[in-house]
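Quarterly update, task 2.4: copper (II) ion-bound model.
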Amino acid sequence: MGSSPCELRWLLALLGGLLLLLPLAQGEDHYYTFVLRDTDFTRLCTTKSMFTVNESFPGPALYVRKGDTAYVNVFNEGHYGVTIHWHGIKQPRNPWFDGPEYITQCPIPPGTNFTYQILFTSEEGTLWWHAHSDWTRATMHGAIVIKPALGTTYPFPEPDDEKVLVFASWYDEDVMELMEEALSEGGLTTLSDAYCINGQPGDFYNCSRENTTRISVDYGKTYLLRLVNSVQNTDMYFAIANHTLTVVGWDGAYIKPVVTSYIMITPGQAMDILVTADQPLGEYYILISPFFDGQADDFDHSIASAIFQYNGNYTHTGLPAYPSDFPGWEDMAPAIDFVKQLKSLNSPEHSIDVPQDDEITTRMFITVSISMMKCPNASCEGPDGNRLASALNNISFANPDLDVLQAYYSNTTGYYTTDFPDLPPTLFNFTSEDLLTDNETLSDQGTKVKVLNFNESVELIFQGTNVMNSGETHPMHLHGFRFYVVGLGPGNFDNKTDPETYNLYDPPEANTVPVPKDGWAVVRFRADNPGVWYMHCHFDRHMAWGMDMAFIVKDGPTAETSIRKPPAYMPPCETDSSLLSAFHSYLRQQA
Ligand SMILES: [Cu+2]
């Protein structure tokens, strides 16, 4: 029996589909150049020199498809060493190019360059890159747009167009000088002077209105908004006046659509949001406003705006419309309610692999605290002359001189220890008022890592504490993985009743989870990515104070389950030169 025309068409379509799939296995290579240099910028009537990438703020966006590889050659033409991190990209077996300083590499010295290789694998949607040295993230960051692989499409109707919205902080002064001042004095850090949307503070700040970011839209079209929050120290609420938001992606993975009038986004998070321009022709405010629930610390209370502006002929009457239903600065419930709505697709095309209860081989209970360290002669600016600090399980992380990855890979001892604890040193009522005795408030300093065997199933229970009456929501970020957020809730974690509330069916995947103020969050992941992977609060002031640690995931049994060979060149560490030259000759042997 011959083929009917219908069957032929079917076969041709199938063949076409297969041809489209062919390049997918390989992915494309992309080449970018980042030139890091000081550039003058003026905001809020103040001009300052800022360390930026390609003289832009925010920096350039990368555009790739799922499965591609990018090479970014970073030329440091600045005055101090810096690194770049590819936030949320798993980099399978490729920790050499992850970027956090003193964890996977030493800073790229001024006058030199270093090429990062970024392997895009399972990520799809929006992620971002940023400098990962001290507080340089403030001025060096940008979006990474990861489109569906060729031959595949979005799990929602294809949007008519897309727009990138990057949120950041603006400081009138030099951010690195502010950091050095804060860390040398041991007190509170200076607040930002503004928030920005795509580099502009917007209508509610001095000298800003002329340059407010405008997002022009056509009536009837649906836009994919790619949101990145690179604000330094504050979670943000986001809304567009009179427009409904449909959240479809979080941290480089699609989720079940969430229809809402606002979102909460922490530093470190990225979200994909659909919005249809279905309102009367006009101008509507896009706002970001801080969500800050801490008591001990203050925050920048200002609100940044952009304008969602319809194309076409209409008369402008007064100010753009203002969102009517916008949570207040300290409203915690709307923030947590929003996060709890996020669920993974868990579909055949977007499958998940959540470690189940009986698979967990490593379970860690990690307290997340603001703390203090003693200062010589009580000369610091924190309470009682102490130095303000922060800690995970009472350990304030200290950066080593040789990055953990080099030290681990070359079997060099003396730079870190492997005794990061699975529990805090003492158990107490973590969320009560007035936890003020030395026992509770003083943390120890150390460079402690947790070693995981290849492919272990890991559960991390983060417990927010109210030590020093400083409870607040902390966005905890893990490099090298996307974890499943299986639960979060208020108060002290109860290991009998709280696990009954876990979502083990369709928990969302993310790289950053907000640990609620005086509450807990539980994440799970499989340690299938050998390497050294940093974990830290994504508030830069907390990270600088020690709210960080690293995992070492050991190699698996085969070459394909082991760390890739190091590149021929890594930026040098300013440490014992004999050690370093030994390590470099080792690298050359490997290359
Ligand atoms: Cu924090």
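Highlight for this quarter: Residues 474, 537, 539, 542, 547 surround copper (II) ion (CB under 6 Å).
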